[in-house]
């Protein structure tokens, strides 16, 4: 059982820390000289003037407070004396350096308990613009959005992995890509019926992960792989004898629904609220759309926003 009681003092301090600019930029400013020495070792041509951490720190402030690039430069210049930085990057430098970054992926913070890690997985969309319904209808603009796939620790609420794809990518195809780096730590995975597929059940069985994935209402035990057949029988309350399902396979739709609800309660499928809650929280904090236009920058922007969210839990 999880302890949902909240430590008010710790919770209040976390909310206060969200408004402290120094949380995002001071550590990078303090390491600026050391980081530049390491980054410029063996570099041919003009040396770098600003460290990667400083650029990422400023971009994080842009994501959190929704600053345009030029306004971000003014904000940095105003803070330069406080942070003891002689020169700050201009708006073009920040943008160009962010484009040049090859990989700023999530840092996995996997804290497996002795019983293993229980996670939830889901996907949601972030709009590529904020035109609104009126402009979309008046000018016949096709709505475009990016699909975000998350893996979340059910106990702590921390984000363990993020993938950004186009809107046409199905949830099922991303299941194994999201869980591959975490498979040795996992005990149980909660996901909705959109992840119901033979390959996903085989992946869970191979890595000894319990799949709390509801099968579709029309699923049967007369075909599919043994792992999925077992899941169908377990959720619908069927019996398998000598590899075959007994006559109880002829349950009505209402009976199957009732049995599946009972199964969900038994496996604590409701823990999946964690990942849905994170999508809701991040959209309230950062908005439901991205400000970047390039696909590569959109992915980096989304990654940084979720890294900022993880920092709120520290």
Walk me through the structure:
This protein has 314 residues and is of the alpha/beta class. It has 2 domains: 1-101, no CATH class; 117-273, Nucleotidyltransferase, domain 5 (2-Layer Sandwich). Helix content is 47%, strand content 13%. The protein has helices spanning 8-17, 22-30, 32-39, 52-65, 69-83, 91-100, 132-138, 171-179, 198-206, 226-236, 253-266, 273-286, 295-312; strands spanning 117-127, 145-153, 159-166, 186-190, 210-212, 240-241, 244-245. The strands form 2 sheets. A 5-stranded mixed beta sheet has the order 3-2-1-4-5, sandwiched between helices. It has a two-stranded antiparallel sheet with strand order 6-7. α9 links the parallel β4 (186-190) and β5. α2 (22-30) runs antiparallel to α4 (52-65) and α5 packs across α6 (91-100). The longest helix has 18 residues, at 295-312. The protein is elongated and about 75 Å long. The two termini are 22 Å apart. The relative contact order is 0.12. The mean pLDDT is 83.
């Amino acid at each position: 059982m999880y302890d949902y009681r909240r430590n008010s003092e710790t919770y209040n301090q976390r909310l206060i820390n969200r408004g402290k600019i120094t949380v995002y930029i001071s550590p990078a400013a303090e390491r600026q000289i050391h980081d530049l020495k390491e980054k410029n070792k063996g570099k041919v041509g003009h040396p770098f003037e600003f460290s990667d951490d400083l650029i990422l720190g400023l971009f994080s402030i842009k994501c959190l407070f929704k600053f345009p690039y030029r306004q971000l430069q003014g904000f940095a210049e105003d803070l330069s004396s406080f942070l003891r930085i002689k020169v700050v990057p201009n708006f073009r430098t920040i943008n160009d350096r962010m484009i040049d970054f090859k990989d700023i992926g999530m840092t996995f913070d996997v804290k497996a308990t002795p019983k293993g890690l229980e996670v939830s997985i889901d996907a949601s969309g972030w709009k590529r613009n904020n035109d609104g319904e009126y402009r979309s209808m008046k000018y016949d603009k096709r709505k475009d959005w990016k699909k975000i796939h998350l893996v979340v620790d059910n106990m702590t609420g921390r984000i363990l992995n993020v993938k950004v794809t186009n809107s046409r990518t199905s949830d099922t195809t991303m299941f194994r890509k999201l869980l591959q780096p975490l498979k040795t730590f996992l005990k149980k995975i909660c996901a909705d019926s959109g992840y119901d597929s033979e390959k996903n059940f085989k992946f869970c069985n191979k890595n000894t992960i319990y799949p709390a994935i509801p099968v579709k209402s029309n699923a049967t035990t007369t075909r599919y792989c043994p792992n999925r057949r077992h899941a169908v029988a377990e959720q619908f309350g069927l019996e398998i004898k000598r590899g075959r399902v007994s006559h109880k396979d002829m349950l009505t739709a209402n009976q199957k629904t009732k049995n599946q609800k009972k199964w969900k309660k038994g496996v604590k499928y409701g823990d999946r609220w964690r990942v849905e809650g994170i999508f809701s929280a991040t959209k309230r904090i950062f908005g439901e759309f991205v400000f970047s236009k390039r696909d590569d920058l959109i992915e980096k922007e989304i990654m940084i926003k979720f890294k900022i969210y993880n920092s709120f839990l520290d």
